[in-house]
Design brief:
The complex is a heterodimer. Chain A is of the alpha+beta class. Chain A is built from 8 helices and 7 strands; from the N terminus they run E-E-H-E-E-E-E-E-H-H-H-H-H-H-H. Chain B is 75% helix and 0% strand. Chain B is built from 9 helices and no strands. Chain B is globular and about 55 Å long. The chains are: A alpha+beta, B mainly alpha. The A-B interface holds A 8, 19, 69, 71-73, 77, 98, 100, 103-106, 168, 170-173, 175, 203-204, 206-207, 210-219, 222-223, 230-231, 233-238, 240-241, 244-245, 249-250 and B 3, 6-7, 10-16, 82, 85-86, 88-99, 101-104, 107-108, 110, 175, 178-179, 182-187.
Chain lengths: 250, 223
């Protein structure tokens, strides 16, 4: 395959960026999108140019590191896959592909296609955990959990924190991510003790990071590589409003 | 900041206010459309004026009207504040953005549709509500709203503006009705189908009913 690429290049977070055009003549349809970028970077290194910086780690769709906005969509044209699981057979010979970093005030560009997603870590640090004393794990059957609740919690916990929801949302809202993290604990008995304070603190941190609010367009869920459901956002709204009007935290 | 104002100024709190005021305005539309539809009795405005007089003079309705004005103001101001903070959340736009692949245009255009409705609201209230209330305030007498309708809707440009206002209302409601329930956390597998059905039906029926009023008068169906 022959491809033309328009790739966002930015030397550091304060520099003005811009698009660079590249041509690749020998792209295999079986390559992943990231392998295609490896080929591009080899070519750039051989030409004595700076390779394109991009985030990646596991390359098997579970780590949430890869983060490219491809032809106007996070993780490219397929539903339910990350950029690393996108293959070049999804494109046609002679295509021009535009690749940009995630765009959000809360996700500043560090370099080229790499953005700083520490905002997500700070939201988790605010309350996305269960405080448990150390000791042996108790018997799994000691805590009865309804199958439906376990399934819903598991579906929410599938979120890999890649940030595609923020990238896709017209408001750069992080509500799908935050709601998945609130839901996975709110649905399980282990999460009950800190349920109210968790919702209050995580939402407060989400707002402090400068993410937008939800307009319920559904773009986040449609573009989520783990297909996290919008039901989680409704649950977060219930958790937050309920906590705010009933908790003893004034 | 108190916990209460902190709640209402948070991102979810602002959405809560949008949803509550939105549903309140939807309930107003039911009353407004029902009473105005009395013109279709085509009885020279007798039934319409009877109910118009009730709405304009009943002390309970007049008190609720203050709530209605507040509901409009909160919905508009809160909407503008959300529009501003949502715009600030993405200072650098995408060069290529294929939003049509993941969402409907009208769900992404609630601010634009709301602004069109606001412009329409200014025109509409300056035609009827403001002159009528100012006259009541000055002289204690109600204006003949039915005759005013017959006069105002002789102008084809006015009729067109009203029809376009109804088109904006249709798209705004088509997303807003369902969206309000999601913002309130009312998303449940047993009720989502009913909310969606009622929302879509409401968004179609109410704007069509409203649009038929200036059209019918202009075409002489209602005299």
């Amino acid at each position: 395959m022959r491809l033309s690429l328009k790739v966002w290049r930015q030397s550091d977070k304060d520099a003005a960026g811009g698009f660079e055009d590249y041509k690749l003549d020998h792209v295999s349809p079986d390559m992943s999108f990231l392998e295609m970028f490896d080929v591009l970077n080899e070519q750039l290194i051989e030409e004595g140019k700076e390779p394109v910086a991009f985030d990646h780690d596991c390359r098997e769709g579970i780590c949430g590191m890869c983060s490219m906005y491809i032809n106007g969509r996070p993780h490219g044209p397929l539903r339910g896959v990350t950029t690393c699981q996108l293959h070049m057979r999804s494109f046609k010979d002679g295509d021009t592909i535009v690749v940009e970093p995630w765009r959000a005030q809360a996700f500043p560009v560090i370099k080229d296609l790499v953005v700083d997603r520490d905002a997500f870590d700070r939201v988790i640090s605010a309350g996305g955990f269960v405080s448990v004393n150390t000791g042996n794990a108790q018997d799994a059957n000691a805590l009865p959990i309804a199958k439906e609740a376990a399934d819903d919690a598991f579906a929410a916990a599938a979120c890999i924190g890649c940030g595609a929801c923020v990238a896709a949302c017209k408001n750069a809202s992080a509500m799908l991510f935050v709601s998945a993290k609130i839901s996975q604990l709110a649905l399980l008995p282990q999460g009950q003790a800190e349920r109210s304070i968790r919702a209050e603190k995580m939402v407060a941190q989400m707002d402090a990071e400068g993410f937008g609010a939800c307009t319920n367009t559904g773009a986040c869920s449609a573009e989520c590589p783990k297909e996290i459901s919008l039901e989680n956002i409704a649950r977060m709204n219930r958790e937050y409003i309920g906590a705010k009007f009933s908790s003893s935290a004034v | 900041m108190s916990w209460f104002s902190q709640t209402l100024t948070s991102s979810i709190g602002k959405k809560l206010l949008m949803a509550l005021t939105g549903l309140f305005l939807i309930s107003f539309l039911v009353i407004h459309a029902t009473i105005n539809a009395m013109i279709f009795y085509n009885d020279g405005g007798e039934t319409f004026s009877h109910w118009g007089h009730f709405m304009g003079t009943n002390p309970i309705i007049r008190t609720l009207e203050i709530g209605l004005v507040a509901g409009f103001l909160i919905h508009i101001i809160d909407g503008l504040m959300l529009w501003k903070s949502n715009r600030d959340a993405r200072p650098v736009k995408y060069a290529v953005n294929n939003a049509a692949a993941n969402s409907t245009w009208y769900s992404r255009s609630m601010g634009l549709l709301g602004t069109l409705l606001l412009i329409f609201l200014v025109i509409h209230t300056s035609h009827f509500w403001i002159p009528n209330r100012s006259n009541q305030f000055a002289t204690g007498e109600e204006l003949n709203l039915y005759q005013m309708m017959l006069d105002i809707f002789q102008n084809p440009i006015v009729v067109l503006i009203y029809v376009l206002g109804c088109v904006s209302l249709f798209w705004h409601l088509l997303h807003g009705f369902k969206s309000a329930f999601q913002s309130l956390g009312l998303n449940h597998v047993k009720y989502n189908g009913a909310i969606s059905f009622v929302g879509t039906a409401f968004s179609i029926i109410v704007p069509i009913l409203f649009a038929l009023m200036p059209i019918s008068i202009y075409l002489g169906w209602v005299k």
